[in-house]
Specification:
Layout: H1 2-12, H2 27-33, H3 45-55, H4 67-77, E1 80-81, E2 90-93, E3 103-110, E4 114-122, E5 133-140, E6 144-148, H5 152-158, H6 165-180, H7 186-197, H8 212-224
Antiparallel strand pairs: 1-6, 2-3, 2-6, 3-4, 4-5
Helix pairs in contact: 1-3, 2-3
């Protein structure tokens, strides 16, 4: 669930551009450096990734603007993978020419030939590793060096308070659906049938949780019978 939260945050940024073009002056750099910056010393593809994970309150192995430094930190932490990529992984690329680690993004979907990722500081048609915009990109496997595997499962288990209200409600609804399908025990079946006949309950979803309001209504119905 946390991986989807990171991706939802990244999706909302699609189309954001640095201003002016070619300046690297963008809100993610301002957040990372604590002030407005501009110029060739401030590429921001990894900074965009850092910003998305910070908004979701998910930690990465290192706070850095460097793809190479992140890769090395992930290897040291045992969080580096080169196969079996998943949505939410921080993928690092090596494009033809240039550095060994050119660019990064957050994997949105794994395809038969590579990945679809949401990336900062790229473009749809121009410079792919310093293009000045947040875009959804389809990348071939041959360009992928590997990926950072964030601690999604561990962080979800440790702190459920990070879930949004909407996520908690969705989780509760799913629990109700699963529990509601469970059959009623033989010890209760006869009395449940009697309660249905007396209009205390309709008997649907017998294993689902009961809210205080539902319990109060059923008690009131029973008292009136």
């Amino acid at each position: 669930m946390t991986a989807e939260r990171v991706l939802n945050i990244a999706r909302r940024e699609l189309g954001v551009k640095e201003s002016p073009a070619g300046s690297n002056n963008v809100k993610y750099n301002t957040w990372y450096y604590g002030r407005e910056v501009s110029g060739p010393a401030y590429p921001w593809c990894m900074v965009f990734v850092q910003w998305c994970f910070a908004q979701a309150k998910v930690s990465l192995p290192l706070r850095t603007a460097s793809c190479g430094a992140m890769m090395n930190a992930a290897k040291k932490a045992g969080r580096w993978v080169t196969k079996g990529l998943r949505p939410g992984d921080v993928v690092i690329y090596d494009f033809p020419g240039g550095a060994a680690t050119d660019h990064t993004g957050v994997v949105e979907r794994v395809t038969a030939s590579g990945v679809v990722a949401i990336e900062g500081n790229t473009s749809q048609t121009g410079n792919q590793s310093n293009g000045g915009q947040v875009c959804r990109k389809t990348r071939p496997a041959r360009q992928i060096v590997g990926a950072v595997r964030p601690k999604y499962e561990e962080e979800d288990d440790m702190d459920i308070s990070k879930l949004t209200d909407a996520e908690v409600l969705a989780l509760g609804k799913r629990l109700q659906q699963v529990c509601g399908k469970q059959p009623v025990s033989s010890a209760l079946a006869k009395e449940l049938q009697e309660a249905k006949e007396k209009g205390i309950t309709d008997g649907s979803n017998p294993g689902a949780f009961c809210t205080r309001a539902q319990a109060a209504v059923m008690t009131l119905r029973a008292a009136k019978k």
